[in-house]
């Protein structure tokens, strides 16, 4: 009986302690809730960069392939048998080097025969001239007829003409004899030989004996769309771009793996005809190639200068977003600390920035961090972003005395610019 009384007392003590703890917790929650309700609202903080214009060099990266500066296909100019080949395949040859020797025996015989015929014709001429002189004297005494005198004069003229003909035959035989020595017409690197010793060749045959290509310098032919040319001309006429007379024709070359080629090329000319199938035209660039690193047919990319933009506006890509319609937009902070929305027309990507065609002006503060916490019309506290990019408004962005080189791709319109 006493045990039951002790158990009931313990339960009453536990219930009382639990009630006291509940009251303490309830009062603490109410106090905390009251403090939360009375705390003042905080102003969102965003990181911004100040847009500043500066001078940049705009370039276009165009794909292309290399082509030899000079190409010569070696073909025989007489019929005959190849006696020997006198060069090593894949080696460098100089203009005038002997490449093939065609059997000269029949051409030597023809040359000697032509010389003998010339000597025979020259031997007949003095006697005919002497006869014509005697006939002229006898004609005055009427010892010979006028017809006989005319015949001997004609014979003299015929003999002189025959001598001239024989001279041409000797020269033709000499030329053909020289053609048995097939020499290099240009200096360059020669490829594989199409024939070996003992092969029969014919004059001006379709298949070349070998091909020589001059590799230093070498050409790089790239294609550019005609629409890009029109856009560039409009920008130049409108004054948005200016030409660089000193460096405007210099072209940087990128290898197929993306590594830069150590030497710059020079833009030679733009083709005058547009390909109706592709809508593009060819630009030819001459590139020094002293080490023969570039070979004909290689795929390369050429960085061609479009012009100099003196008042370029760049905005960090992380500050540009899109609305549901796909338009490019940024959020800016006005002088009153209020968030405003700007619609942008983008030109192209330059590094981590967008080149802005319209929609922003110099001096505006573009929000680059904290955009997800604010909306247009919200009052915010703008703080400069640490390490702001020079292109997007660092203090030294507009102080450069020379153009900043940028590797840029094809221009992007507002409707097809990628968003961040």
Describe this structure in words.
The structure is a single chain. By secondary structure, the protein is of the alpha+beta class. The protein has 4 domains: 49-57 and 309-405, conserved putative lor/sdh protein from methanococcus maripaludis s2 fold, CATH 2.40.420.20; 59-68 and 216-308, Elongation Factor Tu (Ef-tu), domain 3 (Beta Barrel); 79-102 and 180-207, OB fold (Dihydrolipoamide Acetyltransferase, E2P), CATH 2.40.50.100; 104-179, Helix Hairpins (Orthogonal Bundle). The chain has helices at residues 2-38, 105-140, 146-179, 226-238, and strands spanning 45-50, 54-74, 80-85, 92-93, 98-102, 181-183, 188-190, 200-201, 210-225, 250-254, 265-270, 280-287, 299-316, 321-322, 328-333, 339-350, 353-358, 365-369, 381-384, 404-405. The strands form 2 sheets. A 6-stranded antiparallel β-barrel has the order 2-9-12-11-10-13. Strand 14 (321-322) and strand 15 form a beta hairpin. Helix 2 packs antiparallel against helix 3 (146-179). The chain starts with a helix and ends in a 15-residue tail after the last strand. The model is unreliable at 1-8, 23-36 and 387-420 (pLDDT under 50).
Radius of gyration: 46 Å
CATH architecture of the largest domain: Beta Barrel
Q: How many runs of DSSP E, i.e. beta strands?
A: 20
Estimate nothing, just give the exact number of structural domains: 4
Sequence of strands across the biggest β-sheet: 2-9-12-11-10-13
Q: What level of helicity do the residues show?
A: 25-40%
Q: Which structural category fits the helices and strands?
A: alpha+beta
SS summary, helix count: 4
SSE string, helices as H and strands as E: HEEEEEHHEEEEHEEEEEEEEEEE
- Average the pLDDT over all residues and give the rounded result: 79
Beta fraction of the residues?
A: 25-35%
> In terms of per-residue confidence, which ranges show pLDDT below 50 for 5 or more consecutive residues?
1-8, 23-36, 387-420
Q: What is the CATH C-level name of the largest domain?
A: Mainly Beta
Quote the CATH topology of the largest domain. conserved putative lor/sdh protein from methanococcus maripaludis s2 fold
Termini separation comes to 81 Å
The main pleated sheet reads as: 6 strands, antiparallel, barrel
- Gross morphology is elongated
